[in-house]
Every structure is written in structure tokens, then in C-alpha cells.
Amino acid sequence: MADLKTAEAKDWIKSLIEESQKAKEFSYCPYSQLRVGSALLTEDEKIFTGCNIENACFYLGLCAERTAINKAVSDGYTKFKAIAVSSDLEEQVIPPCGACRQVIREFGDIPVFMTRMDGSYTRMTVEELLPLSWNAEYLKKNE
């Protein structure tokens, strides 16, 4: 991962956050009224966005992060550089839920940018958000 303090990194971080904020405009959230958007950056600089999609049968809803990941994977992308998550919360950042943390973890320990409406953010890795996470290493047979 490139140094996240360089001007180039700050540009793509800003773009990623802006795309996550745009994505929440498409949220379908009649129950919670909490719009969430996500933007996922592939290693070759393509951005996939997603929004939350609620369902009256609550557990069938889909979070923004998993929507973005599913779109990327269904288009053949599995190597990611970072993901951003935004909402309409003004005073706090929006973190990925536990299920999203696990799904993100499937694709590596990438930076997660959790944002506020003003574009400010907190950056954490998936390992920081989900310590001792379950991954493919546990499924390999002992040799």
C-alpha cells in the first residue's frame, strides 16, 4: 500500500469519499431512514459504489459495503486498495457492521475510511476493526 500521506493518496482518498457520499443518494431505507453509501477502490483504480437496500424482512437487507463488493466481484475484480463508507450522520463516522467487516476481510486487510457528512474521516484497517478475524487460512488443510 502506498504512503497514504502523499498528495496522490490524498487525491484518491478524497475522490473515494466523494463517491461514497454520492452513492448514498440511491439508498433504499424506508425503515431506518439512514442513508449509507460506499465506494470501493480496486488496485487498478476503478471505483465501485453501493448503497444500503433495506427489506421489510430486516435480515434480507444489504449494506452499502457489501453492495459495492458484490458489484466489483461480479465484474471480475477481487483486489482492492480501500473502501469508504458515508452516511447522513453529522457528529460521528459510520463504521461497517460486523457482517460487512467480515466480507471486506475476505479480500484483505485494506484501509476503511469511515466518514462524516463534511468529508472528514477516520481511517482504520480491517484488522483493527475485526481483530482475530476468520479468513481463508483457517480453511487450509494441515500439510
UniProtKB/TrEMBL annotation:
Essential cofactor(s): Zn(2+)
Source organism, top-level taxon: Eukaryota
Reaction(s) catalysed (UniProt annotation): 2'-deoxycytidine + H2O + H(+) = 2'-deoxyuridine + NH4(+); cytidine + H2O + H(+) = uridine + NH4(+)
Enzyme class: hydrolase
Alphabetical GO biological process terms: nucleobase-containing small molecule metabolic process; pyrimidine-containing compound metabolic process
Residue stretches in coiled coil: none
Catalytic residue list: 65 (proton donor)
SUPFAM superfamilies: Cytidine deaminase-like (SSF53927)
Domain CMP/dCMP-type deaminase: residue ranges: 11-137
An MF annotation (GO) of this entry: zinc ion binding
Gene3D superfamilies assigned: Cytidine Deaminase, domain 2
GO cellular component: cytosol
InterPro entries in alphabetical order: APOBEC/CMP_deaminase_Zn-bd, CMP_dCMP_dom, Cyt/Deoxycyt_deaminase, Cyt_deam_tetra, Cytidine_deaminase-like
Keyword Zinc included in the entry's annotation: yes
CDD domains: cytidine_deaminase
Binding-site residues for Zn(2+), renumbered to this chain: 63, 97, 100
Record-listed E.C. numbers: 3.5.4.5
Keywords: Hydrolase, Metal-binding, Zinc
Role, per record: This enzyme scavenges exogenous and endogenous cytidine and 2'-deoxycytidine for UMP synthesis.
Protein family membership: Belongs to the cytidine and deoxycytidylate deaminase family.
Protein name per UniProt: Cytidine deaminase
Naturally occurring in which organism (per UniProt): Lates calcarifer
Organism taxonomic ancestry: Eukaryota, Metazoa, Chordata, Craniata, Vertebrata
